[in-house]
């Protein structure tokens, strides 16, 4: 029997998990910074924080299903993880383009996260194709 799980995907899932912790803390610190330094409208602070925390909540099952699907060579969890990745990408794009204030650090952090999501999605599709065939 041959092993179909993807080592590059597994490594990327692990590295992305570590990066996401840094991303969350840095983005939270920047939102706090922006709320203190700039005239941040009170009615717009809550949606920006809600998007960040929703993204963090979404990241846990997304990563878990990615790890589980790849290691067990099951296409269903990997497909669900891919679907949750789409949701994470939408929230990441919100933080990149539509949050109240976007700093250059926001652009850098979100561009790196979107790149990781893109690479991870490509590897997930490749792994699912290998599991199905």
Summarize the entry for a quick read.
Helices cover 86% and strands 0% of the residues. By secondary structure, the chain is mostly helical. It has one domain (7-132).
How does this model look, in words?
- The chain crosses the membrane at residues 12-33, 45-65, 77-96.
- One of its GO terms (cellular component) is ciliary transition zone.
- Keywords: Cell projection, Membrane, Transmembrane, Transmembrane helix.
- The protein has 133 residues and is mainly alpha-helical.
- It has one domain.
- Helix content is 86%, strand content 0%.
- The chain has four helices and no strands.
- It has helices at 7-37, 42-71, 75-98, 104-132.
Keywords for this structure?
133 residues, elongated, transmembrane, single chain, transmembrane helix, TMM80 protein, mainly alpha
DSSP E strands, number: 0
What is the subunit arrangement here?
Answer: single chain
Mean pLDDT: 96
Helix/strand/pairing class, anyone?
mainly alpha
Largest sheet: none
Uncertain runs with pLDDT below 50, 5 residues or more? Answer: none
Count up the domains.
1
What gap, in angstroms, lies between the N and C termini? 14 Å
Query: What is the share of helical residues?
Result: over 70%
What is the beta-strand fraction? under 5%
Q: What Rg is obtained from the alpha carbons, in whole angstroms?
A: 16 Å
Number of helices: 4
What form results from the Cα inertia axes? elongated
Q: What is the string of helix and strand elements?
A: HHHH
